[in-house]
Amino acid sequence: MQKISLIIILSFSTLFCQQSIMPVSTYSIVARDSLTGEMGVAVQSHWFSVGSVVTWAEAGVGVVATQSFVEVSYGPLGLELMRGGKSANQALEALLLIDENRDVRQVAMIDNNGNVATHTGEKCIREAGHYRGAQFSAQANMMDKGTVWKAMADAFSKTDGDLLEKLMRSLEAARNEGGDIRGRQSAAILIVPGEKSGQSWKNKIVDLRIEDHPEPIKEMRRLVKIHRAYANMNSGDEALANNKIAEAFKYYSKASELYPESLEIKYWTAITLAQTGKVEEAIPLLKEIFEKDPNWIELTKRLPEAGLLPGDKKMLEKLLGK
């Protein structure tokens, strides 16, 4: 064993003994997209703020889900070991070796090479188990049925689309199969790039949490839709900054399609139209927004001084419907 790994394990062996055990029983999935290299973890539980306890991920390193009677340090320590060059299997085996309560743990890890490691302790409350597939693992405990983790795996494998959609479908499959025997409360999805960017603010692709909700999976689906809408808005802004007007409006159009009820998206699309000389196209959009919420009128008046609209009084009056 390399010296750094031994130091890490010895440093945390005392921590394992000192920390209290948290009974976060749940279902989760860890996965890597073989095409993009993106890695993600998704979870749902009848436990408040499950994402703050179960989900761990680091760009270019790996992801971890630590659940059942949770030992939280499996998350940061597992990532530390993988960052130091250990595979997911080596990291998990090393941590289980020093954990006296391994029989009540359920942990899954995947590293940035797609290696998967999973442990379901013999004393996890049934129904409990896991299913390992190609670059993913689905795991669950305290389920209504012993078929939940296989349903998650099937949904993940059969879903076309990006990693976010595959994780979302897996959570929905677990819910539809009966899910947690106690019910529902919170959920989380965390996705990171397969490589570090060198810019910490770019090292998360998706970070969504439902802390407390009667239908967390339905609420997560709603947030996924909004996330995609705003991702398109961001791509549109980037295209516009590079003077790619047609491309920008394609992104804006897609954002509005995904989230048509958002006045925010509609408003900035209209302002961008006006900025690029398409005033007549902006007017009906703004009219609809102003009728629903007059506060946008006042905001529009402030835009010229911020350089977000030309300092053209007649144009501004036209946009305001005067």
Please describe what this structure looks like.
There is one protein chain. The protein has helices at residues 3-18, 51-54, 74-83, 88-97, 148-158, 163-176, 216-241, 245-258, 263-275, 279-292, 295-302, 313-319, and strands spanning 22-24, 26-32, 39-45, 55-58, 62-70, 105-111, 116-120, 129-133, 136-140, 186-192, 206-210. The chain has 322 residues and is of the alpha+beta class. The strands form two sheets. The protein has a six-stranded antiparallel beta sheet, covered by helices on one side. Strands 1, 4, 5, 6 and 7 form a five-stranded antiparallel beta sheet that branches. The longest helix has 26 residues, at 216-241. The radius of gyration is 24 Å and the shape is elongated.
What is the strand and helix layout of this fold?
Elements lengths: L2 H16 L3 E3 L1 E7 L6 E7 L5 H4 E4 L3 E9 L3 H10 L4 H10 L7 E7 L4 E5 L8 E5 L2 E5 L7 H11 L4 H14 L9 E7 L13 E5 L5 H26 L3 H14 L4 H13 L3 H14 L2 H8 L10 H7 L3
Antiparallel strand pairs: 1-5, 2-3, 2-9, 3-10, 4-5, 5-6, 6-7, 8-9, 10-11
Helix pairs in contact: 3-4, 5-6, 6-7, 7-8, 9-10
